[in-house]
Amino acid sequence: MTPATSAQVDALLLLVSATFVMAVVPGLAFFYGGMTGAKGASQAFRAALVGSAIVVLLAVLGGYGMLAGSPLIAHLVGRPDWGLADVFTPGKGTASTLYPLARAGYLIAVCAVAVTILGTAIASRVTLRAWAVFSALWSVLVLFPAGYAVFALGDGWAVAGMHVIDFGGAIPISLAAGSGAAGVILACGHRDHPVAGERRLPLVAAGGALVWVGWFGLTVGSEGALDAFAPLIALNTLMASAGGALMWIIVDRVLLRRPTVTSALCGAVAGLVAITPASGVLTIGWSLLLGALAAIACASMVDLAARARFGVPMTICVIHIVASLVGLLYIGLFANGDGMVDSGNFDLFVAQAVAGLGVAAYSFVVSLLIAIALRYTLGLTRLRYRADGGFPDEPRARDRERAAAGEEDAGHNVDQDAGYDPDSGGSAADDAEALGGSAADSRG
């Protein structure tokens, strides 16, 4: 038997990592969707499947060239290339294409995660038709160009031009997706905010576990080789997620006196997102601290998001935006050799901040414009309120109104969505508690 070459071993690592990454797709759908009830989980899972299928198809039919191919516009975006579809044809691949194909599979799986983050955040608000069109436009206009900045190692404006460090692609994955979801939610507005159902803890727990395990494939696969850095990346990922889970539990114990399973999982996800760009440039101790700091920052911002009364979807955006920025800026301070602590200058810190904030602003603006355009053409939102601000003007909603009116006439005390204001989308306490956030003040 011929021994495996290093290229074959590295390709195997990428393929296994891609398999783990794809487990994050249903994991995110169950984790975030379960926080809004069984119906919310169903909507999130459908959005995840549709969005992932669309971005995979686009990537194979030319989008991968925009993501990591030869430059179409220098430093900004690659040239659409149909060659990937041709190479995937049985019998066309050779030994020389083994590693490039494995890397392509890994990066396409990463793109599916990015679209899933965005889709699960807005699944309860937009129609399936609008989401299908939006995910296609967003992938071409935002995801692929943002990915080129990080994954095109020789030409991307972030990695090659500004020397930004982003090992796992937090900029195109979590930061761009979270910012894009925030733009869509803003376009929907307060009034298009459905009532959240009762949280389904089994779905939340199962989804969180899938995300926690699958995210190791994202970080370890980002190295692209089974070398001395791969074990360090795995350990850093473990330490950051553990630090985030423990810190969020501590925050909830101090402020709410009631830590929950959701608290631990949200903290773990915050740590995973934060370590994504930094997994290969930190020591184990700094990774543990990063996870804890990311959990504190996200728990604090979740409170503010709850007060804004946009509901659970906005807090999902907050976790991915804040944790990504914390991880990027943390690199500028504590990266081994290049951070401010070791080098004595802020050059890397400034580059990390400019790249992260720039992509976040670009994704937010483009997503907002796409959503507004869809709202006035195909139709964007799932709910359509009457002019008097009542319940959604849908057959089932009208049936519920008539049934409730009949029970009230009969002298029954009907409790319909107590505390829910259709103009605000729910109470801040409910939104914060749904993510295990530390909203001690908002609970009043």
Question: Would you give an account of this structure?
Answer:
By secondary structure, the protein is an all-alpha fold. 68% of the residues lie in helices and 1% in strands. It contains 16 helices and two strands. It has a two-stranded antiparallel sheet. The chain starts with 5 loop residues before the first helix and ends in a 10-residue tail after the last helix. The C terminus is likely disordered.
Binned strand content: under 5%
How many beta-strand segments?
Answer: 2
Distance between the termini: 69 Å
From the helix content, strand content and strand pairing, which structural class follows? mainly alpha
Order of H and E elements: HHEEHHHHHHHHHHHHHH
Largest sheet data: 2 strands, antiparallel
The averaged pLDDT comes out at 82
Secondary structure topology:
Blueprint lengths: L5 H29 L3 H31 L2 E3 L3 E2 L4 H5 L10 H25 L5 H24 L5 H5 L9 H18 L12 H21 L7 H27 L5 H15 L8 H24 L4 H23 L5 H4 L3 H29 L19 H15 L18 H7 L10
Antiparallel strand pairs: 1-2
Helix pairs in contact: 1-2, 1-4, 1-8, 2-4, 2-5, 4-5, 4-7, 4-12, 5-7, 5-14, 7-12, 7-14, 8-9, 8-10, 9-10, 9-11, 10-11, 10-12, 11-12, 11-16, 12-14
Produce a short descriptive summary.
With 444 residues, this protein is an all-alpha fold. The protein has 16 helices and 2 strands.
Name the descriptors:
444 residues, mainly alpha, two-stranded antiparallel ribbon, 16 helices, disordered C terminus
